[in-house]
Amino acid sequence: MNIPENLKYSKDHEWVKAEGDEAYIGITDFAQKELGDIVFVEVETIDETMDKEEVFGTVEAVKTVSDLLLPVGGTILELNEKLADEPELINKDPYGEGWIVKIKITNPSELDELLDAQAYKELTEA
Fold this sequence. Notes:
Layout: E1 8-9, E2 14-19, E3 22-27, H1 29-35, E4 38-42, E5 49-50, E6 55-61, E7 65-69, E8 74-79, H2 82-85, H3 89-92, E9 101-105, H4 117-125
Antiparallel strand pairs: 1-2, 2-3, 3-9, 4-6, 5-8, 6-7, 8-9
């Protein structure tokens, strides 16, 4: 299982790649494997400011629909437009082309509350 060292992780299996006061968010390799083939991504929260752990969208897989929870609070700036035609990018490249949203972080200190790669690995092996 792929768990990049340069990212932060939530216990709900989302990842965060912070770049200054902005961040990319997606679901982890573990999460996409658990969900199976992803067929649709819905995010209707563009331009909304949301709190940490609020639902910002859903991912629909062949066997289930799963809520997407914001790992840190912020304003949803952008949805990965490629996912409209290619939701399977999340399965193929969850940490790259399969990112889901870009946000402007409200409170950067919330990043410190997230798991590092080692702690996330331990969570998924428990």
